[in-house]
Amino acid sequence: MSTVVASIPSGHVYVRHLDTAPPAPEATVVRLPDPPAGASADSPWWPPRMLTSAWVHEHAAEFDVMHVHFGFDALSPESLTEVVLALRQHSKPLVLTVHDLRNPHHTASETHEAQLGVLVPAADAVITLTPGAAASIRARWGREATVLPHPHVVPAEWLERPRPAHDAFVIGIHAKSLRANMDPLPLVDAIVESLPELPGAVLRVDAHTDVMTPGYQRHAAGFAGHLQELAAAGFLELRVHDYFSDDELWGYLQGLDVSVLPYVFGTHSGWLEACHDLGTRVVAPDCGFYSEQRPCLSYAASGPARLSTLTEAVHRAFADRTPPRADPAQRASERLALARAHEEIYADVLKRRLACTS
């Protein structure tokens, strides 16, 4: 008999890759599809309708376990408490995967901490991605988290695709839409200054249209102007575009030799996982637990050594052109192990919840 899981969300690549591919005949987990947030069937899943007490009361007969990953950013602790109480009223276990101990989209940490302060103590089982994150959860909330690795991000055909040959050594910084945990300009300037020491190296900087174009709500005039000046002077290649499609993103990452993560705070990274899948070296800050997640080169996320350690890491990547790449067979085996581990966790929380109500 299958266990029906209300995964929040269900369509995220992390969640989709927690199940076997293709589904094994003996698989015991079925995930509900994400209900659209709006009236239209084409509206996105965010904010998640599942993560409301009203949805739990209305659909309690349709699922066995709720598993929260993402999507609670805009919910108050009070709203999350209502969800927890509704789950308990219907004897539905709550599983929580802590991806972020600090929300990369929030300038301040208090809101996310308050949200986790409801979910972590209430969860029947807590999962996270690295031992360091588990230690932090233990210290802050006294909960033992099961450590399970991040599954592969790119699809099988990209896992097996050879890296394209190119002449230049391409260093990439993607500023995206300048979310709260990003501070890329000092890194850009430091790499530009160090390029003469790296023969054949080029710096490619990508940024989304919304931050680069006047009239958009997120337009950052100083940021855009500085990048445009550097590009006009020939110091870097500047690419301005909207969000990549998945295939565009995989192609972009495989076209880089090094991807520099311009973060000043964070916990884990799906971007790092995609680079690992594709064989692109990552230079990541020493905040969070990136170096525990997958092999990468580290630099100081803040402080006086930030730029010197960044350029040291880029020089190391330049000297070693053989970054580790995920083995497709190992990734497939890991995915199967993750599916089994989640099946066991769901079975355990259901067993314990049944014991509490019998």
What does this structure look like?
The chain is α/β, with parallel strands linked by helices. It has two domains: 175 residues, Glycogen Phosphorylase B (Rossmann fold); 164 residues, Glycogen Phosphorylase B (Rossmann fold), CATH 3.40.50. Helices cover 40% and strands 15% of the residues. A six-stranded parallel beta sheet has the order 2-1-3-4-5-6, sandwiched between helices. Helix 7 packs across helix 13. The radius of gyration is 22 Å and the shape is globular.
Topology, element by element:
Elements: E1 3-8, H1 13-16, E2 29-31, H2 53-59, E3 65-68, H3 77-89, E4 94-98, H4 110-122, E5 125-128, H5 131-141, E6 146-147, H6 156-159, E7 169-174, H7 185-194, E8 201-208, H8 209-212, H9 221-232, E9 237-241, H10 246-254, E10 258-260, H11 270-278, E11 281-285, H12 290-293, E12 297-299, H13 306-319, H14 328-357
Parallel strand pairs: 1-2, 1-3, 3-4, 4-5, 5-6, 7-8, 7-10, 8-9, 10-11, 11-12
Helix pairs in contact: 2-3, 3-4, 7-13
CATH architecture of the largest domain: 3-Layer(aba) Sandwich
Lateral strand order in the biggest sheet: 2-1-3-4-5-6
- Within CATH, the superfamily of the largest domain carries the name Glycogen Phosphorylase B
Structural class: alpha/beta
- Based on CA atoms alone, the radius of gyration comes out at 22 Å
Relative strand content:
15-25%
Report the end-to-end length measured between terminal Cα atoms: 20 Å
The oligomeric state of the chains shown is single chain
Shape: globular
Order of helices and strands: EHEHEHEHEHEHEHEHHEHEHEHEHH
Task: Report the count of strand segments.
Answer: 12
**Main β-sheet description:** 6 strands, parallel
